[in-house]
Write a structure and sequence with these properties.
Layout: H1 9-27, H2 50-53, H3 58-70, E1 80-81, E2 84-85, H4 90-108, H5 115-120, H6 123-134, H7 141-179
Antiparallel strand pairs: 1-2
Length: about 190
């Protein structure tokens, strides 16, 4: 069986980075003694839990530290692995999964993408999070993960599409430059 060809080195790098990040986020609770981090609830943009991370080894400390600044880490909106709260909430976990899936797909299968698709992929996460913010509606973790996956995949597909367009423009520009002589005039055949 022949493996599919990589469509773009840049897109593949984004896929590799997002895959490694996802693995680190999922592995972080296993790098900490069981039942060490049980409630990280806090605010976005703040380091509310520095004291809880002080005794952690470098890798889980860094991942949890980033999560502390970038995510609310509300315990009821997060999954627990190994008795520890994950460094990011379930919606962020879904976003990371979706981004990895989107870049993974575009790393091996290139196709034209209508940007409207990416905009529409943001509707479920907007509705779920928006309704939760302005009403008594309380989403569930599986719904948060699902809407995160949809939005993350849509975002990754759009970014990969833009990378393909930039790559094609670069190739076309090089072809035009190569077909002109030093004076900028087309070469005679």
């Amino acid at each position: 069986m022949e493996l599919p060809k990589i469509t773009s080195k840049a897109v593949f790098v984004f896929f590799a980075v997002s895959a490694v990040w996802l693995v680190l986020v999922i592995a972080a609770p296993f790098m900490v003694p069981s039942h060490t981090l049980t409630d990280l609830s806090g605010r976005v943009g703040y380091h509310d839990n520095d004291l809880q991370f002080s005794g952690l080894s470098a890798i889980p400390h860094a991942i949890y530290w980033i999560g502390d600044a970038e995510c609310h880490q509300i315990a009821s909106r997060s999954y627990f692995l190994n008795g520890n709260e994950m460094p990011f909430c379930s919606r962020d976990l879904g976003l990371f999964l979706g981004i990895g899936l989107g870049f993974g797909l575009m790393s091996f299968y290139r196709y034209k993408l209508n940007p409207v698709f990416s905009i529409l992929s943001m509707v479920p996460i907007g509705l779920d999070g928006g309704l939760q913010a302005v009403t008594d509606y309380e989403s569930t973790n599986p719904v948060r993960v699902a809407t995160g996956i949809i939005a993350g995949a849509g975002l990754a597909l759009l970014l990969a599409h833009f990378m393909f367009v930039i790559q094609e423009d670069s190739v076309n520009r090089k072809k035009r430059t190569d077909s002109n002589d030093d004076s900028g005039h087309p070469r005679e055949k």
